[in-house]
Amino acid sequence: MTDNLINRERLEQFWDAYATSVRLSDKEFAVLRFGDCTDLADELAIQVVTGKKRATTSLLRDFVELGRRIPAPGDLSIVIDGKNSPRCIIHILQVDIKALGDVDESFAWDEGGGDRSLEWWRAAHARYFKRQGACEGFAVDDGIEVVLERFEVVWPLELSDRL
Question: Is this structure's pTM higher than 0.85?
Answer without folding.
Answer: yes
